Amino acid sequence: MATAALLLLAATGAAHAQTLSEPTSAGALIVELTPEPASPDPGEVTLGINFVNPASMETQVHIDYAVDVTMGETVYASVERSHTSEGRVSIPVELADEGTYGVKVTADGIFFQPIEAQSAEFSLQVGGGEAPSPAPEPARPGGGCLIATAAYGTELAPQVQSLRELRDGTVMETGAGRAFMGAFNTVYYAVSPAIADMERQSPALRSAVAAAIAPMLATLGLLEGAPIDGDASMLAYGLAVIALNAGIYAGAPALAVMGARRLAARRA
């Protein structure tokens, strides 16, 4: 039911946030982008960037990063990798023309340890009096499905590919779906890196997680063929799938317990 609440809240309120938040492509960090002013006109815009540890949801110190801003061509690019000891930076950028700019933040080091280069991408509207909004289809190689990827051993597993295709091809096609994913990611990336690490260290846990999420994957597959053509149908089908999962994960154990009690009573 918490997921249902997130879905409803996200559909009504998430789009008004002035701070944009996206996980990096491999999920090691969450990047928060806050432009100043919030609804910029052509001229100098300050990009406030905060790197967040998805496990603790606190600012992650000592990050090696680069920033690129484009609109058809490169408008701003880091000459070389930079380092922030505080985990947050403010970068003044001259955005001379109206239009939608792409902002790409890449990290390749955390606390003096190199990591695989991974990026978070945003779109920023300049002019027209509109607040910035997340890119509708940010590039996320690997899908960021950390728990499923660890459970099935590879991001190329059919189950993981199915999740990514469902997210990008169905959920992200509607405003309600995009808002839901933004709210869901805040919760998911707070816990999934730690769970994925435990899975990689324990084959038994990996097998248990794979078995546990199998019913959820099956019910989510129902969305792939659903006639979703807008926010209303996305909400309706989404809530139906949530209710179905609640029945499976809560109802099935309850029925098993009741059956065991009846069997024990008969034997007594």
| SS-based class | alpha+beta
Helix content: 40-55%
H/E topology pattern: HEEEEEEEEEHHHHH
What global shape is seen? globular
End-to-end gap: 38 Å
Low-confidence runs (pLDDT<50, min 5 residues)?
1-17, 129-143
Strand content: 25-35%
Number of helices: 6
Structural overview:
- The chain has 268 residues and is α+β, with helices and mostly antiparallel strands.
- It is built from six helices and nine strands.
- The protein has helices at residues 2-13, 146-152, 158-169, 175-201, 203-220, 231-267; strands at 20-23, 30-36, 43-52, 63-71, 73-77, 82-84, 88-95, 99-110, 113-126.
- The chain has two domains: 1-17 and 136-268, no CATH class; 19-131, Immunoglobulin-like (Sandwich), CATH 2.60.40.10.
- Helix content is 42%, strand content 27%.
- Mean pLDDT is 81; it is low at 1-17 and 129-143.
- Strands 4, 5, 6, 8 and 9 form a five-stranded antiparallel sheet that branches. Strands 1-2-3-7 form a four-stranded antiparallel sheet.
How does the SSE layout of this entry go?
Elements: H1 2-13, E1 20-23, E2 30-36, E3 43-52, E4 63-71, E5 73-77, E6 82-84, E7 88-95, E8 99-110, E9 113-126, H2 146-152, H3 158-169, H4 175-201, H5 203-220, H6 231-267
Antiparallel strand pairs: 1-2, 2-3, 3-7, 4-5, 4-6, 4-8, 8-9
Helix pairs in contact: 1-4, 1-6, 2-4, 2-5, 4-5, 5-6
